Amino acid sequence: MELHYGSLSPLLTRNAVWLSSLLPYQQAEQVLARIGGYTLPATTLWEHTQQVGQSWLTAQQQRVVSVERTRWETGSYQAQERKSVSMDGGMVQVRGEGWKELKVGVVGTFLPPWELSESNTSRSHDLHYTAQLGGVEAFAASLWQLAVQQRVPYAGQVVVTADGAAWIWRLAADLFPCSTQIVDWYHASQQVSALAQAHFPDAPQQAHAWGEALKQCLWQGECWQVIAHAHATGLPTGYFEQHQRRMDYPAFRAQGYPIGSGTTESGVKQYKQRFCGAGMRWSRPGVNRMVVLRSAVLEGSFDQRWAAA
Predict the structure, then answer these.
(1) Mean pLDDT of 179-191
(2) pTM for this one?
(3) Domains (range + CATH), the chain
(4) Exposure winner among 40, 154, 182, 308, fewest CB in 10 A?
(5) What is the pLDDT of residues 63-110, one digit of tens each?
(6) 3 state DSSP class of 278
(7) Inter-CA distances, 70 with 5, 147, 171, 184, Å
(8) Cβ-count burial of 276 within 10 angstroms (0-12 exposed, 13-18 middle, 19+ buried)?
(9) Mean pLDDT, the chain, as a whole number?
(10) How many percent of the chain have pLDDT more than 90?
(11) Three-class SS string for 67-136?
């Protein structure tokens, strides 16, 4: 789609769209007026942002390649490459539809264990984002496109870290069948805390002590201890039995694998900062256009994408 800047220069349009991808249009209008001395109504910012967002969205959709049509390139395999994938979701208010889930995916790179230290723990860096308003099928196409762009299929080690949502693990098995699957440590800890509160509903100190002891077992890779204690007290164990193989935290730490999905949770919050301001209601096309712009801002590729558009 050809872009028409109207009375705005390309440079001002770029900066106005970038700022509008960071802040609500009314706030972007105030910043441009105060810092740059530009008088640009929020409606003008909205129009240019929608146009650029649609252009980028169309280009992105044209690049989508399904899993079935992806050709393996043997020479591209990198045995030493270490890629992380994480997924999560957050709710966005869509006009006429109510609250809908915005599924977010993050692809990053993580360091080998010999490059880690107490001050440099296992975390993903060089993060790249994608998000999709809709079902798992639509999100799967978007996530696979990002994974192919970041050469995830050719990495020697791939780790998927997420919470216990069933749709995530089905998608991980479909797109990344050779990956190591890890339940996010903080979500697992929350599940232990829930067991403790259920066991000692009227004794918070006992609940805390009991829960902390079980968390230590879990941290040491003894998920069976959590299951045994829950069984002994008549508490549900399905979550831990289902994900036991995804909770081998000592082995994961020894390999330098990221055991927390904080990067994705942070990403969800950063998307929601733009989508969930007071009184905000979005059209579905408006969400989709802003998602592609917001993703570029979050990963720092906005100027690169702008130059390539």
Answers:
(1) 94
(2) 0.86
(3) 1-62+281-309 (no CATH), 67-184+260-276 (3.30.420), 186-254 (no CATH)
(4) 308
(5) 776 666 677 788 888 999 999 999 998 899 999 999 999 999 999 999
(6) coil
(7) 37, 11, 17, 29
(8) middle
(9) 89
(10) 70
(11) HHHCCCCHHHCEEEEEEEEEEEEEEEEECCCEEEEEEEEEEEECCCHHHCCCCCCCCCEEEEEEEEECCH
Q: Are 305 and 296 in contact (CB under 8 A)?
A: yes
CA distance 140 to 171: 7
Both structure tokens of 269: 């919050």
On the question of pLDDT at 1 being above 50, the answer is no
For range 195-204, the mean pLDDT: 95
> Residue 181 is inside which H or E element, if any?
strand 180-183
Residue type, 258: P
Q: How far is the CA of 66 from the CAs of 63, 76, 144, 155, in angstroms?
A: 10, 19, 7, 19
- What is the phi/psi pair of residue 79, to 5°? -60, -30
**Token output for 32:** 């441009």
> pLDDT tens digit string along 219-266?
999 999 999 999 999 999 999 999 999 999 999 988 889 998 777 678
Q: Is 157 helix (H, G, I), strand (E, B) or coil?
A: strand
Instruction: With CA atoms as reference, report the closest residue to 223 among 201, 195, 200, 255.
Output: 195
Question: Rounded CA gap, 104 and 128, in Å?
Answer: 11
Judge contact between 32 and 18, C-beta under 8 A: no
| Rounded Cα gap, residues 5 and 305, in angstroms | 17
Dist CA 149 CA 138 (whole Å): 17
Strands 125-133 and 155-162: unpaired
Instruction: State the CB neighbour count (10 A cutoff) for residue 85.
Output: 29
pLDDT, tens digit, for every residue of 29-40? 999 999 989 889
Asked whether the predicted pLDDT for residue 4 surpasses 60, the reply is no
